[in-house]
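Sample entry (205 residues):
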Amino acid sequence: MNSSEQPLRELVLEMHRRGIIKFGEFTLTSGKKSPYYLDLRLLPSYPRLYKRVMTMAYSILEKLDFDVVVGVATAGIIHASYLGCIMEKPIAYVRKKPKEHGTRRLIEGRVEGLKALIVDDVATTGGSLERAVNAVRQEGGIVEYAFVIVDRREGARERLEKQGVKLYSLLDAQKIIEILYEEKAIDEQTFSRVKQYIEKEKSSF
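Predicted structure, serialized as tokens:
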């Protein structure tokens, strides 16, 4: 095992112990059934764990050229805020729908003329990320990069590539189950079920 991979393995194991990575039967926002669920909204409830996640994210993102961090409502806002603070970058966010009063804005914060990094918690098909990219571009922002903590490998990366956006992630679903299986945190039946699901979803796009 590569020694540089050990912190990532420890991260996955702790996320599993904390119930952030769950196995069973779950219904996703899209209505699809999934044998696993990533409850990343729990992360900030564990400050030390969350700090480790964001520090590792920082090490990936510090090499990229962008001016503003843009969170996708609602889950992506807190991660964008944390990253913006530690990277000393301006922060903005994309609402789920335009504000119904006042400015009636879809985006809060300045993005016009700026290179934006779009941030969310999880990428599945990429619909929410693509919507955010389009919103920022319509406001005159430039988008070349997006970041999520976990990529479920269900088409988001390929969808964004078609829009000229490269998706970065700290983890992907395949890596998570491989680590948990190798560390005997999940049994072979669970590993096989989730692996088959990932491969099936990957083959559909």
